[in-house]
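wait is this the right file?? whatever heres the structure
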C-alpha cells in the first residue's frame, strides 16, 4: 500500500474577530481572539489521516511548536520526520475575520523556511516509487523536494498557494495532481477558461 508523505507547513494561528478588517493607519479593537493549530500542511495531514491514509508529516517546528506535534499525533499522523529547531520560532499566521466572514491573513514562515538539503534527502530516503508526496507553497525547498521525489517515481500532489515566483521556478511538468483554485490556475497557465475534471483518490 502506498504511503503518503506530506512535506508541509506547521503554523500557530492567531485569529482575531473584528467588525471590519483594519485599513492602513487605523487602530481597532478586536471582538475576540483565539489560537489554533494550523498551516496548510498540518490541515492536509489531518484530513488524510481522517480519510484512512497512512500519512507521514515532514516539516519544522520551533521552540514553541510542541502543541502542533501533539495535534498531529492525536489524529494518528506519523511524526518521526517532524524536526524541532530550538533556535527558531514556529511559523505563524495572524488572521482577521470580519462580521461578514471576509478574512485577511499575514503569514510568518519561521521554522517552515528552514529546510536544508541534508534534511530533505534524509526524509525522502524512506519513500519509494508510487508513494504519494503532498506539497504546499508555505515551506522552502519545494523545487528540490519535487526533483528528488520525481526521480524516485513518487506521485506528486501540489497546492501552489500562495502563488509566487518560487512556484514558477519549479518544474511543474513533474506534478501529477494540482490542488488549486481558478485564480491560481490562471496564474500558472495564463488561461481564464477551464475544463473541469474530477479526481477520485483511494487510500
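ok assuming it is, sequence goes like this
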Amino acid at each position: 500500500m502506498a504511503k503518503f508523505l506530506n512535506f508541509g507547513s506547521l503554523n500557530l494561528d492567531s485569529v482575531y474577530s473584528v467588525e471590519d478588517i483594519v485599513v492602513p493607519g487605523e487602530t481597532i479593537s478586536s471582538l475576540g481572539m483565539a489560537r489554533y493549530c494550523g498551516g496548510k500542511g498540518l490541515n492536509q495531514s489531518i484530513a488524510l489521516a481522517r480519510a484512512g491514509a497512512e500519512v507521514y508529516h515532514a516539516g519544522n517546528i520551533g521552540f514553541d511548536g510542541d502543541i502542533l506535534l501533539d495535534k498531529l499525533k492525536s489524529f494518528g499522523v506519523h511524526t518521526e520526520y517532524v524536526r524541532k529547531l530550538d533556535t527558531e520560532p514556529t511559523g505563524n499566521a495572524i488572521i482577521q475575520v470580519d462580521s461578514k466572514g471576509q478574512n485577511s491573513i499575514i503569514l510568518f514562515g519561521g521554522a517552515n523556511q528552514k529546510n536544508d538539503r541534508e534534511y530533505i534527502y534524509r526524509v525522502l530516503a524512506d519513500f519509494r516509487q508510487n508513494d504519494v508526496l503532498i506539497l504546499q507553497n508555505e515551506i522552502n525547498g519545494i523545487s528540490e523536494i519535487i526533483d528528488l521525489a520525481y526521480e524516485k517515481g513518487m506521485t506528486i500532489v501540489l497546492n501552489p498557494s500562495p502563488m509566487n515566483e518560487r512556484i514558477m521556478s519549479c518544474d511543474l511538468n513533474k506534478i501529477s495532481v494540482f490542488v488549486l483554485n481558478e485564480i491560481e490556475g490562471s496564474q500558472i497557465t495564463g488561461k481564464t477558461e477551464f475544463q473541469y475534471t474530477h479526481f477520485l483518490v483511494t487510500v
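The domain at 4-10+39-91+109-189 is CATH 3.40.1190.20 (UDP-N-acetylmuramoyl-L-alanine:D-glutamate ligase). so i think its the right one actually
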